[in-house]
Design goal:
This protein is α/β, with parallel strands linked by helices and 220 residues long. The chain has 5 helices and 11 strands; from the N terminus they run βαββαβαββββαβββα.
Length: 220
């Protein structure tokens, strides 16, 4: 059965077509989900892609969290549905309370746009179940507020529960504990700052994102 992935679109989102292309190139179906919609009946998984939801006013993701779509995505996630937030999507998930912590401005207050190496820290998530623990992946980043932070107790919980999904091999933005991505306690909601959808084609320089999108689709 071919998986259908709904891709959320808020005013200011700009990576929805990248995400749909990656999903469809790997055998899935992509479906745009407009921010005013509450209907997720036709999707098997959800991606909240990168961009600048509602112009990143207040804080990145702070306005998007109040959209009808996020209410539906919250219900979907609470019922076990796979949800992936990429970059701005990660920010939306933290603002919505679906993931812990917050994303703050990069160290040095510089926008970052480059390829980085990350390490797979766990296979126990909807995004990494087909990856190999310890594998190093080359993935692009493209963010100004990608510096993951949380309090001491939250960090301890993430570490003790094996909920750090990806770590930077050479931390580019100051994220606590070199964290590039985390999951929720049920392990079906994952937020990451790197863009796997931009690393699914050798013409783009890397195919290392395939294993992550394949995991989300439940392929192979």
């Amino acid at each position: 059965m071919t998986a259908t992935v709904g891709v959320a679109v808020f005013p200011g989102t700009n990576c929805e077509l990248d995400s749909i292309h990656a999903v469809e190139s790997l055998g899935g179906n992509g479906k745009i989900l407009w921010h005013s919609s509450k209907n997720l009946s036709e999707v098997d998984a959800v991606i909240i892609p990168g961009g600048f939801a509602h112009g990143d006013y207040l804080r990145p993701g702070a306005i998007a969290r109040f959209s009808p779509l996020m209410s539906a995505i919250t219900d979907f996630a609470n019922n076990g549905g796979p949800v992936l937030g990429i970059c701005n999507g990660f920010q939306v998930l933290t603002e919505s309370g679906l993931l812990p912590g917050a994303l703050q401005k990069n160290k040095g207050l510089k926008f970052l746009c480059k390829t980085v190496e990350v390490c797979v820290e766990t296979q126990n998530s909807t995004l990494t179940r087909h990856a190999t623990k310890g594998a190093k992946l080359s993935l692009p980043i493209n963010h100004f507020e990608g510096n993951f932070t949380c309090d001491h107790d939250t960090l301890n919980s993430l570490l003790e529960q094996d909920r750090v999904v990806l770590r930077y091999c050479d931390n580019p933005n100051g994220s606590i504990n070199d964290i590039a991505g985390v999951c929720n306690e049920a392990r079906n909601v994952v937020g990451i700052m790197p863009h796997p959808e931009r690393a699914c084609d050798s013409l783009l320089g890397s195919e290392d994102g395939k294993v992550l999108i394949d995991s989300l689709l439940g392929l192979n």
